[in-house]
Amino acid sequence: MGPYDMPSSSDCFVTATKLFEILVTDLAAPAAGKLPHHELEELLEERGRDLLRQLFQDHLDLRERREQEAVERQRPRVIGSDGLLRPRLERGHERLLTTVFGTVTVNRCAWRCLEATNVHPADAMLSLPKGRHSHGLARLAVLEATRVSYDAAREAIGRRCGPVLGKRRLAGLLINAARDIDSFYDAQVVEPCTASTVLVLSVDGKGIVMRPEALREATRQAALKRQHTFRTRLAAGEKSARKRMATLGAVYDTEPAPRRPHDVIAPPGGRGGDYVPRPGPVARAKWLCASVVHDAEHVVGQVFAHAEARDPGHRRCWVVLVDGAQHQLDLVQAEARLRGVDVHIVIDIVHVLEYLWTASWCFHHAGDQGAEDWVATHALAVLNGNAVEVADAIQAQAGQAELSAEQRRGADVCVRYLRTKAEFLRYDQALVVGWPIATGIIEGAARHLIADRLDIGGARWGLDDAEAVLKLRTVAANGDLGAYWKHHLAEEHQRLYPTYDQARYTLTA
């Protein structure tokens, strides 16, 4: 048979063409003219998905035919990534591929030799995944399952694609999708800033309810030994020992915005009607990272590494915002010493206000409006750099009131906090030079990344899928999901289909 006798490529799409013609005929029929628009939508959605699946299948069949024709014309020399020649050809090897349109069959040629795995060149050309589910379906799973629960995500995918995905496989797709996030950010080039731009770093932690096997060993042992007061609920002060701490980090740039204490806290009685508070610093180029697998030390290292990528010469002013937890302070100071960078640590003013409010109830009854003025007076003093003097005043007031140890407990806690953290409460200096003094960025990130998804009612997480969802949500919050997905697909292709030269180079390196 000569080349002019070969069937045209369009012949492979006969089935899809017939489906399209049937659909057009049905839409043109008088019965369709009586359908309301929502039934037309349902008809086109269901029949249209079948048509697209058939087009996908017909195209794969065309590729199969072209591959066989190419083999007949010239037998190729196929060498696997192990360097072994595959001289034996077998046709008709098939595998299933589940796509966003439905499941299709991929038929291709296999090249074989003894004691070696088969090589399918068509798989590399199509960049097929290791499993059954396509990269398009995996991306849809990422988009859905990082927003809502697995059950809701599976239902949403089923409405669009049909019954193509189970709950366990959905979690597996997310775990695989998140595997290249660290390498993506390691290769990212950060846009530099001027030396006057403040570089702000912040870290925080938030617990995630885990399944027992995913807890850290100390927490798991505590859960086994813990005896609760009540059988059906926790008593005041009792912990469930069901959470594993996730650590979050943030880095962002901001221009200095000098302020005064009255711009942050209104004085007792409120501000005057014509007084306009000066605006605070505005965050830009925000970058987030998070992990529940790694400990806080690892995440702090990631934060400093990203900050150093923004300012490799340490020419800018580095400000670290924390909530005052001692282990965070120790980790930040240790990382700063390791990298030889001077950092200015500032404790979140909101946490200080919480301690002041706790102390205020030692001297005011519930609902007393005087508590607000009491807090405002002491908060303004703290903002003026007088944290130790405020601690002395609260301690003296507690002594004069002759409160019992139980009654003055809140005041004593506040006094200890102000004295032990005084070196990080120099808000007078921070306001003059225009630094941020609140951890709103990282607090908001904790609510968005964890509370909105991983802390939904009834959720109990395994370690791998919790890490995957957390990191994928972080990438999305950074606005990098599109760029990351291209990087992930390129890395996945190299893992699944390495060339012989590539494998040899990798081993040599």
Notes on the protein architecture:
With 509 residues, the chain is of the alpha/beta class. It folds into three domains: 3-128, no CATH class; 178-348 and 438-478, no CATH class; 349-436, no CATH class. It has 20 helices and nine strands. The longest helix has 37 residues, at 37-73.
SSE topology:
Layout: H1 14-28, H2 37-73, E1 78-79, E2 85-86, E3 88-99, E4 102-112, H3 121-126, H4 135-145, H5 150-161, H6 167-177, H7 181-186, E5 198-209, H8 217-225, E6 243-254, H9 261-264, E7 284-291, H10 296-310, E8 318-322, H11 326-339, E9 343-347, H12 349-360, H13 370-383, H14 387-400, H15 409-420, H16 427-433, H17 440-451, H18 463-477, H19 481-496, H20 500-508
Parallel strand pairs: 5-8, 8-9
Antiparallel strand pairs: 1-2, 3-4, 5-6, 6-7
Helix pairs in contact: 1-2, 4-5, 4-6, 6-18, 10-11, 12-13, 12-15, 13-14, 14-15
Q: Mean of the pLDDT scores?
A: 90
What is the radius of gyration computed over CA atoms, rounded to a whole number of angstroms? 31 Å
* Global geometry: elongated
From N to C, what is the helix and strand string? HHEEEEHHHHHEHEHEHEHEHHHHHHHHH
Spatial strand sequence of the major β-sheet: 7-6-5-8-9
β-sheet strand percentage: 5-15%
Query: How many distinct folded domains?
Result: 3
Contiguous helical run count: 20
pLDDT < 50 runs, ≥5 residues: 1-6
The helicity comes to 40-55%
How far apart are the termini?
Answer: 51 Å
User: How many DSSP E strands?
Assistant: 9
Largest sheet: 5 strands, mixed
Structural class: alpha/beta
